[in-house]
């Protein structure tokens, strides 16, 4: 049996006329074609349906064809190629099941252009193809192919970003030049700015950072909707880190001015910066860790060991404060003097004891509470 199979990938037939697909039989397909032509005479699927009827009649009239000929119209959905192809495949299965014949079925597919032909692999997986006929208005055939190619390119996010973003940046050269002229800025500023944008974009694409950025944005959005405290605490922690960095730089400038030397040794430079900034960094660490602990508690995932985090931060801060204070430069009249060896020993001991004691304390608390929960459950 030869099956003439007109394909309407975006279901213009169903959406515009209400006809349910698949439409099986010559009279039924002709009636559907007339209804579509009445509703929208300019729709190219009208030509597809009538071409299918014409192909059906020609095959029936051909003396060389000694087998049965049938025609059935199938349609997809207007929700993208993947869902449309899947819908066409299901309708082809329905048509094949409805054709009660013991003969091998071969299909002749009728389409209206390159877009509908994307479904051919789906049809070929179900029935052998004897041929494919594309029905388009002759004057529009090349235009339609170009249009479909451009549509496919613009529909692909990766290709769209690769082509359109650099093109858009280049097109901004002229308006930026006009703005630079109005603001009395040199032309090199515009060229440098455009070059910077293109360089950043190329680096961004080359390193594949788009997925990372999308993941961070998705987590931030989910955090806002879920009421996560860490959104606020991380922001505060970032502000504290910035303040700590500024304090460290200012301490370095003050140390250089007080010493009368344009530069300090690398060890002294690190010591001055860390000694001034470590308190702010510790505050940032405590803030962020408390926010994380709060979110874990609200999500019913709290463990006592999580409370170690702020104590660990304080312990590390005490150790770094002592070490950096010991290596501070000797500057007469300076507001901050180096720590003695005895005070360094006290700082190191205090930091170590704080970390160890917090670990033991919360480990014992977790084991006791876990045991209590088990006994309660047993009761």
Provide structural commentary:
The radius of gyration is 37 Å and the shape is elongated. The chain has 379 residues and is an alpha/beta fold. Strands 2-3-1-4-5 form a 5-stranded mixed β-sheet, with helices on both faces. Helices cover 68% and strands 7% of the residues. It has helices at residues 12-17, 26-39, 44-61, 81-98, 120-124, 141-155, 157-171, 173-182, 187-206, 210-226, 230-259, 266-298, 308-326, 341-378; strands spanning 2-8, 23-24, 69-75, 106-111, 129-134. Residues 374-379 have low confidence and may be disordered.
Task: Record the strand order, biggest sheet.
Answer: 2-3-1-4-5
Secondary-structure-derived class: alpha/beta
What is the residue-mean pLDDT, rounded to a whole number? Answer: 80
Spatial separation of the terminal alpha carbons: 74 Å
Shape summary: elongated
Q: Major sheet: size, sense and barrel closure?
A: 5 strands, mixed
- Extract low-pLDDT stretches: 374-379
Layout of helices and strands:
Layout (H helix, E strand, L loop, with lengths): L1 E7 L3 H6 L5 E2 L1 H14 L4 H18 L7 E7 L5 H18 L7 E6 L8 H5 L4 E6 L6 H15 L1 H15 L1 H10 L4 H20 L3 H17 L3 H30 L6 H33 L9 H19 L14 H38 L1
Parallel strand pairs: 1-3, 1-4, 4-5
Antiparallel strand pairs: 2-3
Helix pairs in contact: 2-3, 7-9, 8-9, 11-12, 12-13, 13-14
């Amino acid at each position: 049996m030869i099956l003439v199979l007109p394909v309407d990938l975006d279901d213009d037939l169903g959406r515009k006329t209400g006809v349910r697909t698949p439409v099986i039989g010559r009279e039924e397909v002709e009636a559907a074609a007339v209804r579509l032509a009445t509703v929208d005479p300019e729709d190219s699927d009208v030509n597809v349906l009538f071409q299918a009827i014409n192909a059906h009649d020609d095959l029936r009239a051909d003396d060389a064809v000694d087998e049965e000929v049938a025609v059935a119209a199938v349609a997809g959905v207007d929700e993208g190629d993947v869902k449309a192809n899947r819908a066409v495949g299901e309708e082809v299965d329905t048509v094949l099941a409805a054709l009660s014949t013991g003969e091998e079925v071969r299909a002749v597919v009728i389409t209206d252009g390159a877009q509908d032909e994307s479904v051919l692999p789906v049809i070929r997986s179900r029935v052998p193809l004897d041929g494919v006929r594309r029905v388009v208005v002759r004057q529009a055939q090349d235009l339609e192919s170009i249009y479909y190619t451009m549509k496919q390119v613009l529909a692909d996010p990766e290709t769209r970003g690769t082509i359109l973003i650099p093109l858009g940046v280049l097109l901004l050269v002229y308006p930026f030049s006009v703005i630079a002229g109005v603001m009395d800025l040199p032309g090199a500023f515009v060229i440098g700015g455009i070059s910077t944008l293109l360089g950043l974009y190329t680096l961004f694409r080359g390193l594949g950072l788009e997925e990372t950025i999308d993941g961070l944005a998705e987590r931030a959005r989910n955090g806002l909707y879920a009421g996560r405290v860490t959104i606020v605490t991380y922001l505060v922690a970032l502000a504290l880190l910035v303040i700590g960095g500024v304090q460290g730089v200012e301490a370095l400038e003050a140390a250089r001015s007080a010493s009368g030397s344009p530069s300090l040794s690398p060890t002294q430079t690190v010591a001055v910066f860390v000694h001034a900034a470590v308190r702010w960094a510790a505050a940032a660490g405590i803030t962020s860790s408390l926010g994380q602990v709060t979110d874990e508690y609200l999500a019913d995932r709290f463990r006592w060991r999580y409370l170690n985090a702020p104590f660990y931060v304080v312990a590390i801060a005490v150790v770094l404060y002592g070490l950096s204070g010991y290596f501070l430069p000797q500057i007469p009249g300076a507001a901050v003097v180096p720590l003695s060896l005895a005070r360094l020993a006290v700082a190191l001991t205090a930091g170590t004891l704080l970390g160890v004691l917090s670990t033991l304390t919360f480990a014992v608390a977790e084991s006791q509470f876990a045991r209590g929960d088990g006994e309660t459950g047993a009761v």
